User: Fold these one by one.
Assistant:
Number 1:
Amino acid sequence: MSDETPAMRVSTRTVSTLLMAFLIAASPSSPSASAGATGAPPPDDTDGAHWSWPLAGPRLVLEPYRAPAHEYGAGHRGVDLGASVGAVVSAPADGTVAFRGTVVDRPILTIEHANGLVTTFEPLRSPLVPGDVVVSGEEIGFVDVGGHTSPGALHLGVRRNGDYVNPMLFFGEVPRAVLLPCCLAR
């Protein structure tokens, strides 16, 4: 026999369920854990309208964003998008090309946007050079091969004030976590 009263059992169950919901919502693989390793907040409505999708055709995310547990921890600091080698890539928002070059074995293009935002595309073959101004929807290059993605996939990373954030937040694709009441006494 247990010395627990029915009220204590309900209370324990409620606390356990709430703790589990909190841990799931805060886990690095959950959509709500979209902040960077240092806790950068996700974008809000002050960033303007949603960005335009950088590829034509259906939106296919092959590998989602996974925030690292800490600044140097394992994670996936961007999303890998399904495409084909040679597919046209467009700027998701207005900006200025900050870098174009090869890093290790992959061609990369980086664009600086308003509000401390920076996008990186890889592998991307591009004729643009640092200083070129681009507008949302403008062609910026073509999907190439190299890097950690499978041939034809495009990696898109977004940093806000130096911290990686989930790129899908800018395309209106990540629902916010909502905690619901649970475990009411029966």
Number 2:
Amino acid sequence: MLLFTQHPFPAPPTKFLFGVAVVLLLSACSQNVGKSADSASQLSSKAADAALETPAARRYIATRHKLLLEAPEADLDKHFDAIQAACVKLACVVLRADQNRCGGPYNPAQATLTARIAPHAFDSFLDILLKHGKLRQHQRESEDLTSEVIDVEARIANLTALKTRILELLAKRSGNLEEVLAAEKQLSAIQAELDSIQGKRKALAGQTETTRVEVTLVPQSLAAAGSWAAPVVEAAGESGRVLMSSLATLITVTVAVLPWLLVGLPLFLWLRKLYRKRQVRRAQAAI
């Protein structure tokens, strides 16, 4: 009788199973790392897009230009009229226009124009100015009014919200007559304050949304023209100013001392006379 012994399949080695597990784990980790990298890439891309789409904080800057131009005195009126016409053509707002036609050594003729113009039109206006006079001085000033504008806008928003709330309460008529009258009084006060602060905001808008230009046109002097007689003209003008300054000082001193002379001079003469009498008496007593 033959006996057959059944042997089970040989068990896989432990090292083999451990290797398979390690491979599976590494595969899973690589997939997770890939997903994490993709997610991080997407997040960074979204953050970059958001940064690009976020507008920069707006600044409210008030800009002013002061220009001094020289032109021939005989043509001063003609150049100034042309400058005003160009300003109006560029849709600027003329705030002030003064012109002194008297002339003379102590009251020279000159013209002054103060206006507000759109920032993009200033360069064109400057080109026109340079055609009607020689630029002697150009000062540019800037002032940051951002904090002031933000504060005013916040106050307007708060007052508007409060006004809306009071109007809603008045529309419901839920209170008694005394409360309704108090609410209407408060509404009137809020409206007055709102009008005032809106006027301030409008003034700030005029300063920050336009450019203030102050143009002074003066006669062209011999020194400015580069004449050979410039040193003589300058010396004569300087000597005249020194002479007039000295004369003004003399007049001031005279006016200041005159009241004391009117009081002190008679007193001095009387004391002098008294002193002489006393000297005469002493001389007679000595004899």
